[in-house]
């Protein structure tokens, strides 16, 4: 089924409910949002010859047009290629060409640079929000969304690819149906009148989460800052009420710091779904202490979008449970539509407690990588997605992530999971961030090295960090060396770039 049907049905049911907001300003109700999508679909078809199955690229930061275009493309039967607008124009051009996008809607800053890079070829480049764009939105609406099947491509998401070229992850309509329905079953409730706040990049899972609100007739709110500003988020919570948002762990930390500084508790924010990277126990404990029961964790990846496990609100907040802390350090339990397996290198299932690669099977798992059968065969084997994440299940079915398989440090023949060391370092009250990587060592193969960022105004003595490690983890796991930094290198989604830290160690600082 075409995902744009969900918008159409909500528009039929509640035509005058507010649908699209910029800050607190209502731009369109559901009738109008559905009409705009249907008009854009006509324009895509007639102006840019977009036919069902074609790709339409969106290279924009968070803006209200994002949702109009996403649904316009789906309405026309096309797949959306979301591209991070902060990538270098050459990287953007490469993705557009790889996807063979018929049209690319871009933010103003990128327009000219891109047009000269891909201008002569087969992709039309349109500035979203420009005058030409406004005329597209006035085309005669298509009467109904084009019929699409479960396995038709809906979302072609390019992985950030820390090595080599990014790969296009093919996500189907069926994958997104599964993501959306399991949200209601396993992650959180959603209601009409909720406000879905897009503070995290819409070109990532946070944008896909709009489907939940679209189905329920919620308000879709793009902050005026176009991104994440903690003070703005707290103010929007108070003004809009019933806010749900996705936030990466670094965003949660900044939100909590701001709430503390303001003496606020996140009033009006109902749910913060966090994930996309490790949330350290000390951080989530503080988040709950400051803002209360508003947090739900999910674990997913582009290849199984937002949908592998979840740690529900009660599990995050229930301090009375004897294993509360342990569970807080986990990513929760498998969602209803996936099977989970911890496997050794041959794919043999390992028992609870054992550490191995996390394998996932089920309805949200991608179709494969776009025009890349080798990478697909490596990653999808016998129907199982090899996530590249390493973890362990406990006897109650809670999954704890240890690390990405490529980040595991092997020192003197023992596996060391940086996350475990980072968790201990972050117990130090003066520490804001810590990231642990392996450094080549003639004696041990690799040795543990930590990059740490003190809190503003705090001094951190490596001797104290060393003692903390000696008190909590095996001797061989403690860092041999600490680098005190003012910040850690991160990608646009806030993930620490361990490859860059390793490159610094190799002398390429
Ligand atoms: P991406 O495909 O860019 O969404 O990145 C997905 C990766 O982020 C996963 O494979 C994990 O390594 C990491 N990740 C996602 N969610 C979590 C989480 N809740 N806790 C720790 N790491 C996570």
Structure, described:
The chain contains 18 helices and 26 strands. The model has no long low-confidence stretch (mean pLDDT 93). A hairpin with a 3-residue loop joins strand 24 and strand 25. The radius of gyration is 23 Å and the shape is globular. With 509 residues, the protein is of the alpha/beta class. Helix content is 35%, strand content 27%. It binds adenosine monophosphate (AMP).
Question: How would you briefly describe this protein structure?
Answer:
The protein has 509 residues and is an alpha/beta fold. The protein contains 18 helices and 26 strands.
Characteristics:
509 residues, nine-stranded mixed beta sheet, 18 helices, 26 strands, 35% helix, binds adenosine monophosphate
Number of strands: 26
Strand order of the largest sheet: 2-1-10-9-11-12-13-14-15
What portion of residues is helical? 25-40%
Mind describing the biggest β-sheet? 9 strands, mixed
SSE class: alpha/beta
Helical segment tally? 18
Kindly state the mean pLDDT as a whole number? 93
Distance between the termini: 50 Å
Bound molecules: adenosine monophosphate
Question: How does the overall form come out from the CA principal axes?
Answer: globular
């Amino acid at each position: 089924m075409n995902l744009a049907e969900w918008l159409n049905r909500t528009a039929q049911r509640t035509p005058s409910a507010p649908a699209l907001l910029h800050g607190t300003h209502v731009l369109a109700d559901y009738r109008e949002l559905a009409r705009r999508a249907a008009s854009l679909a006509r324009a895509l078809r007639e102006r840019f010859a977009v036919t069902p199955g074609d790709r339409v690229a969106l290279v924009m930061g968070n803006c209200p047009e994002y949702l109009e275009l996403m649904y316009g493309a789906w309405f026309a039967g096309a797949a959306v290629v979301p591209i991070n607008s902060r990538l270098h124009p050459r990287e953007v051009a490469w993705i557009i060409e790889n996807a063979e996008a018929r049209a690319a809607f871009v933010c103003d800053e990128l327009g000219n640079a891109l047009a000269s890079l891909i201008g002569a070829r087969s992709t039309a480049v349109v500035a979203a929000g420009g005058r030409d764009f406004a005329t597209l939105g006035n085309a005669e609406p298509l009467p109904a969304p084009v019929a699409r099947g479960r396995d038709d491509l809906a979302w072609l998401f390019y992985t950030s690819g820390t090595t080599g070229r990014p790969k296009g992850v093919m996500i189907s309509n069926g994958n997104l149906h599964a993501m959306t329905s399991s949200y209601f079953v396993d992650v959180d409730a959603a209601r009409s009148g909720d406000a879905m706040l897009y503070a995290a990049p819409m070109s990532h899972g946070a944008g896909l989460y709009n489907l939940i609100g679209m189905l329920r007739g919620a308000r879709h709110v793009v902050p005026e800052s176009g991104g994440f500003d903690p003070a703005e988020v707290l103010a929007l919570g108070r003004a809009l009420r019933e806010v749900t948002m996705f936030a990466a762990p670094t965003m949660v930390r900044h939100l909590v710091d701001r709430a503390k500084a303001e003496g606020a508790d996140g009033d009006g924010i109902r749910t913060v779904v966090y994930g996309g990277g490790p949330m350290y126990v000390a951080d989530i404990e503080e988040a709950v202490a400051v803002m209360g029961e508003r947090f739900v964790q999910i674990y997913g990846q582009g290849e199984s979008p937002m949908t592998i496990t979840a740690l529900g609100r009660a599990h995050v907040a229930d301090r009375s449970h004897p294993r509360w802390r342990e569970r807080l350090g986990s990513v929760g339990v498998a969602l209803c539509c996936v099977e989970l397996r911890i496997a050794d290198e041959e794919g043999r299932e390992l028992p609870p407690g054992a550490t191995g690669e996390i394998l996932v099977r089920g309805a949200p798992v991608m179709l494969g990588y776009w025009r890349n059968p080798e990478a697909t065969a490596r990653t999808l084997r016998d129907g199982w997605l090899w996530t590249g994440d390493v973890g362990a299940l406990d006897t109650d079915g809670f999954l704890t992530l240890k690390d990405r398989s490529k980040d595991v440090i092997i020192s003197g023949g023992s596996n060391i999971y940086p996350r475990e060391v980072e968790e201990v370092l972050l117990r130090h009250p003066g520490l804001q961030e810590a990231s642990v990587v392996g450094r080549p060592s003639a004696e041990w193969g690799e040795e543990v090295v930590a990059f740490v960022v003190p809190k503003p105004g705090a001094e951190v003595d490596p001797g104290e960090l060393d003692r903390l490690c000696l008190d909590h983890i095996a001797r061989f796991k403690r860092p041999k060396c600490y680098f005190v930094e003012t910040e850690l290198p991160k990608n646009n989604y806030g993930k620490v770039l361990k490859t860059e830290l390793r490159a610094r160690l190799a002398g390429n600082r």
